[in-house]
PilT/PilU family type 4a pilus ATPase (Nocardioides bruguierae), 430 residues
Amino acid sequence: MSTHAHHLTDGTAGRDAAHAAPLGAPSSAPAATPTHAAGHAAGHAAGQSAAPSAGGLDAGQVLEALLAETVRRGGSDLHLRAGVPPRVRVDGDLLPLGRALPGALLTQMLRGAMPADALEVYDRDLEADLAITMTGIGRFRVNAFRTRGEDAAVLRRVAEEPQKLSSLGMPPVIRDLALRRRGLVLVTGPTGSGKTTTLAAMIDAINDERAVHVLTLEDPIEVVHSSRAATVTQRELGSDSRSWSGALRAAMRQDPDVILIGEMRDADTVHAALSAAETGHLVMSTLHTTDALETVQRVIDFFPPHEQPRVRAALAACLQGVVCQRLVPTVDGGRAPVLEIAVGDVRLSEAVADPERTGEIPDVLAESGYSGMQTFDQHLVRLVVEGVLSEDDARGAASKPHDFGVMLRRTGWRPDAPTPAASAFAGGAR
């Protein structure tokens, strides 16, 4: 399961043309190992203000070395700020990498990485999102911003192509949701939980099997899909469309069967998604919510009270599924995805439609394992029983720690006993 930790970082690949132009092209000089190059670049760049900046390395080479070391360490994110050491996130921990980078060097690194349109946005808004490719190293999603008057950035390592749902350890019900013909499917979770990776794998499943038009609206494009059975059209905010509202309006004139919206950001986006789902399209998107109940409430709360009854009715009619993800430390030092899964059926629809019954959604999930549903706590129990998670880590991640403990005891599991058969736990998706 620890393999999943590196697959399920939130984000995958970047822009394939201008937004993914290779940075820091390989030097004609003999290449140092990633460890040496990163240490040399980060450690000796301090105090120098212009490229070439670190023992003959220019700003692009410094960035290349830091990203190579991030990949070598199995890191998911690289944090860059002026005057402090770069830091890399490995299995959830943020660890120092080399010595402090001077502000002038960091500015050169970031501005050199940005294509013209992203640089224009950054100069105007003091923050920008983009995706880049480093030849021979990988692809990264970049958020550049200012802090205390200095340039800074977080670069997230992302996969260069979509992964298969099976390689992510996803249960069959996730593929079933991806292959629905219409309705709304939401993948949710905190930042870094793997939402983008899962959505990309779901789009890839469609691309394997359905002769349809898949239209994605993203900011930025992360996973690049090649058309196979499906025709995949990917549009990026800024380079392919000037606004979300314009892209969403245009989407309905582009003959889509499946629409992926990068994130539900506001009432207008939610309204467009619900309208498309109600008119026979499969719509997929993400939210930063922690479980199925909060997801339903968040969608409804985008709207003022007088509009909420209409939104409830629309959501109840078109919601096909909610997949909520968290990453939890494993006993072998990695991280495993833990899933809460809601599948659209009569009981779920009734709970969404009736505000007096919406609070019953966790009970619907807990009692509907036969249709692939499960709560976070049910999945946590199974992973403890299977020896993937420790009891303490699972309890710390549980939505209801007391209920988690009761369910775990009912399986007959004991810390000092051999792992019982997973079938001892009843309920939830497999």
The chain is about 35% helix and 20% strand. Residues 218 and 236 are 5 Å apart (CA to CA).
